[in-house]
Each structure stands twice: as structure tokens, then as C-alpha cells.
Amino acid sequence: xxxxxVVITYNHEAYxxxxxxxxxxxxxxxxxxxxxxxxxxxxxxxxxxxxxxxHWLGQRASLFSDVQIHTQATNQGTCRNYTxxxxxxxxxxxxxxxxxxxxxxxxxxxxxxxxxxxxMSSGYPLNLIDGHLDWPAxxxxxxxxxxxxxxxxxxxxxxxxxxFNHTPSIIFSTRVLRDxxxxxxxxxxxxxxxxxxxxxxxxxxxPLSFEQSPLVHIYYRRTAGSTYLTxxxxxxxxxxxxxxxxxxxxxxxxxxxxxxxxxxxxxxASKLMRRLLNLNYLVYxxxxxxxxxxxxxxxxxxxxxxxxxxxHYQTIRARAEVQRAAFMRNCDGANHTSRM
Length: 340
Hints:
This protein is α/β, with parallel strands linked by helices. The chain has helices at residues 16-30, 49-60, 78-83, 108-114, 137-149, 155-160, 174-177, 180-186, 194-204, 227-230, 232-249, 254-266, 271-276, 279-290, 292-301, 306-339; strands spanning 3-9, 36-42, 66-70, 93-98, 102-103, 120-129, 132-134, 171-173, 210-221. α1 (16-30) links the parallel β1 and β2 (36-42). The N and C termini lie far apart (46 Å). The mean pLDDT is 94.
């Protein structure tokens, strides 16, 4: 098996067809001569997510050498749903992505193949909000800054300080997914899978190898149903727990002072006070100033072709609507038969 796509779903009926169609695009455009596995990990969706996915597979299953759908009777949370399928991954490369995001039109298979010897690599995102794609300039500028600030540091230094990376755009080495220690650590948390995973990876794979790709990997959907909004209490609990782990098990000297300050600020009710009192932002800002010329040069090189990506998304959206219409016709036909 050359490549595995893992789709993490929970109540994604409005978006899952777009996600799956973007996978089909990658395979049809760039996947000649490769074999693919598709794994869907659903966390007890209460809507039509799985029915839509199964309908789509009725049309597209031939794209894959192996298809697996993993479900559960009750919702277990993002972290357990995220990790439960790791043991089933067969591809030499694997990408795990939420079922509401969309893969871009770049040749991601070739890019991921180029980066396959790394523990982790990432791309830049476009934000997908209400069907419209935009370049998140502030966030991506800070990704550029983070890559410059920590370029000569091990990855754990990045995790101890303020840094920016786009988790949905990250691809991990499959050897990471086969590490039971990393899996078990992530499962200690409820909804925040990315930060704990990176921390344990940085501990287990020292030095962890990472590279930032200049390509747009993901159209990152922002909705009112995003986990960090709908389960904010669980999200905050997870963040404080991982900060505490870093303070007690990793940080040393002044790093520990900064982590204690970060925990104190994170507990403040006021977002303004969280920023003003946080010494970590001061340190990050000073480091950015020291690297400002390199950061500005890197930013000038980033020129996403927004119109190309917008046209691609409209194509994916139209294909998903065709699939949705066929699904609805099948449902209407089945209901009509059952009433006769």
C-alpha cells in the first residue's frame, strides 16, 4: 500500500462529501501507479455523515485497494477517535484529516513523497469560511516567523515557547502512528490531540525532523461547530494539562518560569489579560525582531494563487453537490418504496 487517507468524522454531513471528493481529486490527478487505503473513523455521529460516506463509496470505492469504516456506539472524544485507527494504517505514507476540511489542488502526493523521510512536515492553510477561501495573513506570517525563530532549535523548544503551526496541514511518518507510547499519551486527553502528540513525539524522536513546505495543503474550514468552540471547557482542560506536563517533565530553568507564567495567564478570564501578562509573547516578539529580515524575505516568497484554489474549491463543491443530490434521490426512492 502506497498511501493511506484517514478521515476523522463527527457530525460532518454538511461537509464530508467535499472532503472525500478532494481525496478523489488527488488520486485521479496525481495517483497513477499508486495504491490507496481509505479509513473513516467516526465518533458516533448523530447525523447522516456515515450514510453519505457509504453512498460516496458506492461510486468511488474502486479508487482504493482497501476501505475501512470504524464506528462506535457512543462518542469517545476527538483523541480516542483520532488514535483508534492508527493500528489499521497500511500505507507507507499516511494523512489524517478531519472530514470537514478540503485538500487543495496542489500535487500533494508528490510533495508528501518528497518529505517522506521526515518525522513530520506541514504546509500552509487557506481558511474556508462560509464557502469562501482566504489567505490567513496574520497566522501564516507567524508560521513563517516560528520556522525562522526555531530553525536551529530542537522541536521541543518550539513547543515550550509560543509558536505557530497548522495541525490539519501536517503529515506524520507512519512510524509515529505505530508507537504505542505516543498513542497512549494522546489518549490521556479529550479533544486536544495535536499538542500532546507533538510533545510526546519530540520526547520519543529526539531530534524530531520537521520541514515546512511552501505549498497550500489544506482548506481549513472554520465553523460555529469547531471543537475549540463547542467543547471549550474540555479544550481548556487539555491545554492546561499539557502545559503542566511540560512544566513538570520538560522545562528547565527560565523555561519553567515561562511555562508557569503561561499557565497563570491561560487561566485568566480576560483574553486581554492573557496577552498582556504573558511573558512568552514578549520573548516571542523579541526573537521575531532578531530574525525580522529573514522573516520578511520568506514572506515575500509566499505567493499563493488564490484564484486557482478558489476555482478548485468550486469544482470540488459542485462534485459534492452532485453526489448529495444522488443520495437524496436514493433516500426519496427508498422512502417511497417503504410506503407502498
